[in-house]
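Most newcomers find our protein records easier to grasp once they have seen one. To make this concrete, we reproduce a full record directly below:

===
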Amino acid sequence: MYRTLSLFVLIVRAAASETISDADRAYLVSHLQMTREFVQDTTRGLTSEQWVYQPRPGSWSIAQCIDHLARTEEYVLRLVRERLLTSTAPLLGAFPSTAKDRKAVIEQPRRMSMVEDAFILRWMTDRTPAVAVPVDRRPPIQEISPRASIVEPRSALDHFLNVRATTLEYIKVTKDDLRGHFAQAPMPEFPDMKFSDAYQWLLRMSAHTERHLMQIHEVRRSDRYPIQR
């Protein structure tokens, strides 16, 4: 009887470990809701000219930034659910176009903590390295590039909000072990952190929203940005 009870406790504990903690879930939901509100506040009331204005040749318009956010979130959510969670070994590259010459890291990832989460947020929201490189030398990742021409800018925002609603719905109810599946994801500023878990991919996606909101504000501060009349 005691042996059976002990086995039952072990099974329950094992099952409980195969999901994210309440704290992780609450933090990610709050962060996603926060960055969604940032996007809505930043784009509210824009004219058609403001949506599509590009400060210089090759730079993105506000519409393209939002289109990129929507495409990235759609891609990352699919990456997590269809590739990371179904793989026992760390994925070599989340974006095949950027991982062609990458070699697998021999060491095995360990379960990540809030400290590494903070590194993810710090790295994703720092636009300093990007701004230092000319636009023509930092092409977008092929899998998540924005459309070259966006006839109806509102469609990009609607796409983003629809995908974000899907992401939030998933995070609020999932029992998936987002801390137990990994992708190799080197960050130059944090060389010791060679992997990111599935949870961190969703968190970095929300931080990625903040990153491009900074870019949108850069567009709005440019000298020839259309004035609303």
